[in-house]
Backbone:
C-alpha cells in the first residue's frame, strides 16, 4: 500500500522524496549515504535509492561512490537550490532544523514536535501551522533551550515554543491533564544527533 504524503508535502512526489530533499538541501555542504537518507526518511533502502536516483537525475544533487557506500550531496550551484531550500524549510524544516540547534545541549532524553505542525505531518487537515510547539523531555538548562529554539526559529520563519518536562513527568503523563492530552495528539519524534552527550 502506497503511503500518502502529509498535507505539508503536497508538492512533493512522496513523503520519502520530501524527507530526502530536506536532509540534503537543509544541510548544504554535507554528504549522506543512501542508508542515512533512508533512515531519515523512514523508508526502505530500495525506495530511498530510487528517490536519490531521481534527485540526482534532476540535477538537484550529486552522488559519489566511496568504498561500498554512495554519498549524496545537494548541488548548491543550481538555480533551483535556494527556492527549493526555502520550500523545504517551510514544509519539512522543523524536523531537520530543530535537531541541529538542540545538538550539544546536555540533559535531553527525548524531544517531540507537537501541535498543528505535527498534526499536518500526520495528514490531519486544517489551517497551515503557525508556531512550532516542541516538547523536550529531560533535565536541562532553560536558557540554553531558549537560545537554541530562538536560533532554530529564524530559518524556519516561525517561533518555536519549547516546553520542558522531566522524564518522570513524561512517564506519568496520564496523571497530568496537559501531557495526557498531548500523548493522544500527533507527535513527531525529533531525531537528535547521536554525537550529543
Residues:
Amino acid at each position: 500500500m502506497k503511503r500518502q504524503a502529509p498535507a505539508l508535502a503536497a508538492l512533493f512526489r512522496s513523503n520519502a522524496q520530501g524527507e530526502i530533499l530536506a536532509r540534503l538541501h537543509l544541510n548544504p555542504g554535507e554528504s549522506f549515504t543512501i542508508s542515512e537518507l533512508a533512515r531519515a526518511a523512514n523508508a526502505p533502502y530500495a525506495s530511498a535509492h530510487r528517490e536519490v536516483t531521481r534527485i540526482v537525475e534532476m540535477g538537484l544533487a550529486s552522488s559519489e561512490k566511496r568504498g561500498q557506500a554512495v554519498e549524496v550531496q545537494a548541488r548548491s550551484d543550481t538555480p533551483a537550490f535556494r527556492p527549493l531550500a526555502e520550500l523545504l524549510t517551510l514544509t519539512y524544516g522543523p524536523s531537520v532544523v530543530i535537531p541541529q540547534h538542540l545538538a550539544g545541549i546536555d540533559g535531553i532524553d527525548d524531544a517531540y514536535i507537537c501541535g498543528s505542525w505535527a498534526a499536518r505531518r500526520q495528514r490531519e487537515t486544517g489551517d497551515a501551522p503557525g508556531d512550532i510547539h516542541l516538547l523536550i523531555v529531560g533535565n536541562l538548562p532553560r536558557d540554553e533551550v531558549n537560545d537554541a529554539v530562538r536560533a532554530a526559529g529564524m530559518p524556519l520563519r516561525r517561533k518555536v515554543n519549547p516546553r520542558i518536562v522531566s522524564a518522570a513527568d513524561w512517564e506519568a503523563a496520564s496523571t497530568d491533564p496537559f501531557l495526557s492530552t498531548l500523548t493522544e495528539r500527533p507527535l513527531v519524534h525529533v531525531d537528535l544527533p547521536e554525537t550529543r552527550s
Remarks:
- Residues 1-6 have pLDDT under 50 and may be disordered.
- The CA atoms of residues 96 and 104 lie 15 Å apart.
- The radius of gyration is 17 Å.
